[in-house]
Amino acid sequence: MKTKLILLMFLAFTALNINAQCPFTPTITSPRLGAMFPDKVVFCNTESEVLSTQTYDSYQWYKQEWDWQTPNTNPWVAIPGATSQTLTIDGTNDMLYYFKVEVTQANCTAQSAEIMSDGYAYGLPAMMTTFTPGTYEQVGAGEYNICEGASVKFENIYPVVYGNHTWYKCTPGNIPPVPGDPCIISGATGDSYTATETGFYGFYACTEYCPDQCEFLGLGGFQQLNFGNWSFCGLGTDETKPKSNDLTLYPNPATQLIYIGKASDKTYKEISIVDASGRLMIQKTNHQYNQPIDVSALTPGAYIIASKSAEGKVYRNKFIKK
């Protein structure tokens, strides 16, 4: 009995050695494997993809469901009937799975390195908005007043992923886009667009990798711009503008309340407080020189306060909010 056990152990050890020393290593290939990432097949949701390996005596394909954590604790499962040289996967059933193949040749068994089926390698569309400091104020969620003559730049956050764009200046009448829609900005097909007039801006874009797979930003991601000669325009923080610092402002720095003014001015037609980026934070009208201004809600930092007297004289002073 002991001799038989030793013999079985020897045979098992020999088999392991043979497996470890197979003179071949199967590899998986496919038309899209490595096109974007070395170990991933990225293909369109509506397409299928054929995985293939070299010629061997037998094959068994396996799949493992993706897991966000490392190491992946999901089991490898033999795919029923997947015993040929090729395996067809598709964007409906096989997205976010790992695949590998086990092959046998001349009584030697070896496995390939795993690859992943990933059609979600692109990010859903998102838009970044860039303003010029001192030329805008936010008046609501996704809505801004912009100074006439200024511009606002919109950009797709994922420019590498998306190719052809359709940019809109108002709510589109149809998705996907239909030629002739008056909301489509003619000739605007790139990753960015610079707006100089009032409109409701957003885009529809097709993935560069899958030209037929397109995504709409969604109206919730659109931005409303209202261009005009708003009262805050020209206040800004441009250090080249002339400043008048003979206006009393105290305390400075301030934590809660500040006072501004000269008794001779009595009333200020308009008071505006802007932050370092030029964004309007507080605005008051018909302000009495001895009334407090509550700045407790402001984030600590440097601010400009612009005051216009009843006679039209403009003062600009800096103060620090602690």
From TrEMBL:
Keywords: Signal. The keyword Phosphoprotein does not apply. Residues 249-320 form the Secretion system C-terminal sorting domain. It comes from the Bacteria. Residues 1-20 form the signal peptide. InterPro entries: Secre_tail. This is Por secretion system C-terminal sorting domain containing protein. It comes from Chryseobacterium populi.
